[in-house]
Amino acid sequence: MDLIAALDRELQQLDERSLRRRRRIADTPCAPQVQVDGRPMLAFCSNDYLGLAAHPRVVEALREGAILYGAGSGASHLISGHTRAHALLEDRLAEFLAPHLDAVRALYFCTGYMANMAVLTALLVQGGDLFSEELNHASLIDGARLSRARVAVYPHGDIEALEKLLAASSAATKVVATDSVFSMDADLAPLPALLALCEKYGAWLVVDDAHGFGVLGEHGRGSLEHFGLRSPHLVYMGTLGKAAGVGGAFVAAHATVIEWLVQRARPYIYTTAAPPALAHALMASLDIISGAEGAERRAHLRTLIGQLQDSLHLQKWEHMRSESAIQPIIIGANERAMQAATALYEGGLWIPAIRPPTVPPGTARLRVTLSAAHTTENITQLVTALNALETTLEDNV
User: Fold this and answer.
1) Which one is the CATH code of 23-53+292-395: 3.30.70.20, 1.10.1240.10, 3.40.50.300, 3.90.1150.10?
2) Which residues have C-beta within 8 Å of that of residue 226, sequence separation ≥ 6?
3) Residue 131, burial from CB neighbour count under 10 angstroms (0-12, 13-18, 19+)
4) Do 250 and 77 touch, CB atoms closer than 8 A?
5) What is the pLDDT of residue 396?
6) 365-382: per-residue pLDDT in tens?
7) What is the pTM of this model?
8) Contact 320, 330 (CB under 8 A)
């Protein structure tokens, strides 16, 4: 019981610092209008950027996939769990990204977290130097910790600092790892400059495009298309549970890189393959993303982003404007951010408060995420509430 008491004390300290995380229960499909803990809410907190999570075509494809392949895969990919659905999805992803990657091949993973750990540990299985962006996602940070590399963290977006590190490295294997769209600040990494450095110094550039794939680029090919990049130095990770609306992730790179992952990436080798029905459903998602409907949804999303940025007038809170669907609002103190999130929730708007350790101390924020499934009326409701709430909370300081 002393062990339990120790944990209880730690949990109490989280409460005192307004850092305890709590789950809410959604009773309806992922969508702007949801039923949460028994009450109707307008949600601005999912990563369903194109509104595909409950799209009829995707849902029907998931049902069809379950009929064709059953509920589960039964084994790892290298035993007996690699189905025709997985193979077709990987081929389709490779074809989709072929304009940006040489001799491209794709590999499907259960989660983006697993994909990032797989890439970094496999590329650096024999050691080397890993240069990690300061604001990288936890999955890249944990992948760095599990690798056999010497890890150097370079300041956010600091190309000069990174070049000094690369120039000083004599390692046979060098890897630069970065998010493309940073999930909490929502700015974009300077990928063209990063790629130029990697080509100059013979390094891999691992790009986590979790929040760019499907959203950025004319055809939804993500940050690579947005910046017009192509190089054999690129190792690209995209998630499939955000804009694609289903689940899992993939790594796309030169075929030799992918074959090395199949042989050496422990998070891929030693886990049961994702249900093939998910892969089957993702084929429908890719059809939408790459087609006319996907283009229309991206255009509508851009319209909503512009509407929010034009009509949100904050005086004391900081709106971090972004080209992406993520629109953070920095409030500062943990308690004040929690007060804001609670007040919004009581008014029927579901927007979470993001606090340390996810973000630095003193930068607690509301993480507003938009979806192509939102309407202009939804944005008007959101902006009206935020503008009024800032005045109310700050006047009561």
Assistant:
1) 3.90.1150.10
2) 188, 212, 216, 217
3) buried
4) no
5) 66
6) 999 999 999 999 999 999
7) 0.94
8) yes
